[in-house]
Specification:
The complex is a heterotrimer of chains A (396), B (114) and C (156). Chain A has 396 residues and is of the alpha/beta class. Chain A has 19 helices and 18 strands. Chain B has one domain: Barwin-like endoglucanases (Beta Barrel), CATH 2.40.40. Chain B is built from three helices and six strands. Chain B has a six-stranded mixed beta barrel. In chain C, the strands form two sheets. In chain C, strands 1-4 form a two-stranded antiparallel ribbon. In chain C, strands 2-3 form a two-stranded antiparallel sheet. In chain C, helix 1 packs across helix 2. Chain C is of the alpha+beta class and 156 residues long. Chain C is built from eight helices and four strands. The chains are: A alpha/beta (396), B alpha/beta (114), C alpha+beta (156). Chains A and B meet through helix 1, helix 6, helix 9, helix 12 and helix 16 of A and helix 2 and helix 3 of B.
């Protein structure tokens, strides 16, 4: 089975005598707990059947010219495609969590502004493996053991302590930083921009605030190095993404270095890629204006009261977005589509219970490195995102 | 009465994902930092950021930042923060004789019921 | 916390009476830790009243020994999140399961030492461990790569 607990999409999950094998704790909870705390079909506080809830959602969507469709990061690519069609038909906004998560990194990759690779290539070839602003121990628990640092690769078969060089950059000594022992470096960073400047100075052979010359020397020894960039790096850059891409370009002038985003929900990259195929933008897109803009991010639209209806899929903005955004959610109509009960659903006009992608529905997702994975559900639910979205699209 | 109960401490707090199950409002403090400031495991502290605050049960964790703690991504951190402080922030913490915050309480505040 | 022979020694009578069959109390402490001897083998501890408090402390101290496997391994499940580092780094797995655990996947062999079940590390076949048996070596690769100290060994 493919685990859809995070964007690793681990493909070796087995079942034996009622036990789930190989999945991490996070994956185990995701797979074993899918029947718990399920969402209910609700219209204005009253429980209804699913089709009644969908009809009410349609009525709300038809009543506005200022709607946003938001979320979709745990939906399959197939469901995402229909959701995009709905926003096209409604001439409305569409956005996902990547607009405050790792969207910018995926965008740079899709626009080929930064060289990237796959996790299998990393396993087989990578020497310097650098985690920057991410602690995969918690966000992607099997990242290091299944894909990057620990497995033996075809060209790196002598084990992590001889054939890899681990670098961890974080504001604290995280779990992953604790693993940076022999043949490894941990850099406690206060300012990511200054760290990038240190790298640039070290390339020119000059002294700098952070001692990174040794890392560059290690990179030079190999024909394959990789940076995994997480949310800590994104926020540390404070919008100056070109600093990072420029550094990667500079290093590539003397040794190969690739960049892969690390973090996020199971199919966030899938959303970015699916939307990119359609409109050449990865998120915060307006079908009315036919362009993407920072002001079209869900949080900006809500904060500035530029929308009055939100169709929220598989995400919980009331608990995940800052107060200045969440408090404004009250002023608009909300349709929540989610397999699980959420806090946002409690204050929504319409709540529709969907299915867990990959557990109850088949389809495709995109792993954090862009590899497409066919899901292998263990259960079946008739009512899933595809069913709900199709009905909405037909009704419009 | 513990003397530390009258004091406020400035702390550096990282917001991060955790892989284990998360049910209550918990702040994972660096053990050294906590001991230095007279905070014990099991205490409840208020984390005060500007005009907003939320209460957390204290647990110790050696991977928490030296000069503060770590709070898992949650409705509590979202409530306290904005996008400029989304991954880490400075805040005051003080020991309180209250229970940890509950999601419903935060929702009530967000919805302006309180 | 790992247990050391010194900590055990401190709670023994320290008279080197040899009734246990060892030359010194220190060597008895080592044997206790390796589970070659039992606490009952130290007769004075039980016979003489003045050792009563020490005996209680020692019994408390040696409790983890009961939980440990034959290789001295203790898994603290509460600290484990199933990241699988231990499964993949295990030198025995690398050798015997090069297409499974060796390249990061769940073990493909029937009798792996370690496996992740229901999100937690489970010890399945401790007899295959390099720490087991006569020619044992004190391998600690799994422990070294557990970032939460969910794996520990009695000797520390």
């Amino acid at each position: 089975m493919i685990c859809t607990g995070c964007s690793c999409l681990c493909d070796d999950i087995e079942f034996e005598n009622g036990k789930i094998l190989n999945a991490c704790e996070k994956g185990f909870r995701h797979i074993s707990g899918y029947k718990e705390r399920r969402a209910k079909n609700i219209v204005n506080g009253k429980e209804v059947d699913v089709d009644t809830a969908i009809d009410k959602a349609l009525e709300i969507l038809k009543s506005t010219k200022k709607a946003v469709i938001y979320g979709l990061d745990t939906s399959t690519v197939e469901a995402q495609r229909i959701a995009i069609k709905i926003s096209e038909k409604l001439n409305c906004y569409i956005d996902d969590n990547s607009s405050f998560c790792l969207g910018e990194f995926v965008e740079a990759i899709l626009k080929k502004e930064v060289p990237t690779s796959t996790l299998e290539e990393v396993r087989d070839k990578a020497y310097v493996i650098l985690y920057w602003g991410t602690n995969p121990y918690h966000s992607l628990p099997r990242h290091m053991s299944k894909f990057t640092y620990y497995p033996r690769g075809s060209k790196r078969n002598r084990g992590y302590d001889e054939d890899r060089f681990l670098v961890v950059i974080d504001v604290r000594k995280s779990e992953v930083a604790k693993l940076a022992k022999k043949n490894a470096r941990f850099i406690k960073v206060e300012n990511d921009i200054e760290l990038i400047e240190s790298f640039l100075k070290a390339i020119e052979g000059k002294a700098s605030k952070y001692d990174v010359a040794g890392i560059l020397r290690e990179m030079k020894r190999a024909d394959f190095n990789v940076i995994f960039g997480g949310l800590g790096l994104k926020y540390g850059l404070k919008g100056n993404y070109s600093y990072l891409y420029n550094l990667i370009k500079k290093i590539n002038e003397f040794t190969p270095l690739f960049f892969i985003p690390a973090g996020f929900h199971s199919n966030m990259r899938g959303f970015n890629e699916t939307l990119f195929e359609e409109v050449r933008a990865i998120n915060k897109f307006s079908f009315l204006e036919k362009k993407s803009s920072p002001s079209f991010a869900f949080s900006e639209l809500v904060k500035n009261e530029n929308v009055d209806v939100a169709m929220i899929v598989g995400t919980d903005p009331l608990s995940s977005l800052p107060y200045e955004v969440s408090r404004k959610l009250l002023d608009m109509k909300k349709i929540v589509i989610d397999p699980r009960e959420t806090i946002t659903a409690k204050i929504a006009e319409v709540s529709i219970c969907s299915a867990f992608s990959g557990i109850e529905t088949e389809g495709e997702m995109v792993r954090s490195d862009g590899i497409r994975v066919k899901l292998s559900p263990i259960d079946k639910s008739e009512i899933d995102d595809v069913y709900i979205f199709k009905k909405i699209l037909e009704g419009l | 009465m513990r003397l530390t109960k009258l004091m406020k401490f400035e702390a550096f707090i990282v917001v991060a994902r955790i892989s284990w199950e998360q049910k209550k409002a918990i702040i994972y403090l660096n053990p050294e930092f906590a001991k230095k400031n007279g905070i014990r495991e099991g205490d409840v502290v208020s984390v005060i950021k500007g005009e907003r605050k939320a209460n957390f049960r204290v647990k110790f964790l050696d991977t928490a930042p030296e000069n503060g703690g770590m709070i898992p991504n949650s409705i509590y951190t979202s409530y306290l923060l904005d996008f400029n402080t989304f991954k880490n922030f400075r805040a005051y913490i003080e020991i309180v004789e209250e229970e940890e915050s509950k999601p419903e309480e935060i929702v009530d505040i967000i919805m302006n019921k309180k | 916390m790992p247990l050391t022979p010194m900590e055990i020694y401190k709670l023994l009578p320290k008279t080197n009476c040899k009734r246990c069959g060892e030359q010194t109390c220190m060597s008895f402490a080592f044997k206790l830790l390796n589970r070659d001897k039992k606490i009952d083998d130290c007769k004075p501890l039980f016979e003489e009243k003045k050792y009563e408090v020490q005996l209680k402390k020692l019994q408390e101290l040696l409790k983890p020994l009961e939980k440990a496997t034959e290789t001295g391994l203790i898994v603290n499940s509460e600290r484990c999140n199933g990241c699988g580092n231990c499964v993949v780094v295990c030198p025995v797995h690398v050798e015997r399961d090069p297409r499974g655990a060796g390249i990061g996947k769940g073990p493909l062999i029937r009798d792996p030492i370690y496996r992740i079940e229901n999100g937690k590390l489970v010890v399945l076949n401790v007899h295959a461990c390099r720490r087991y048996g006569k020619n044992r070596i004190l391998c600690i690769v799994c422990r070294e790569n557990c970032p939460t100290d969910a794996i520990s060994f009695l000797e520390g």
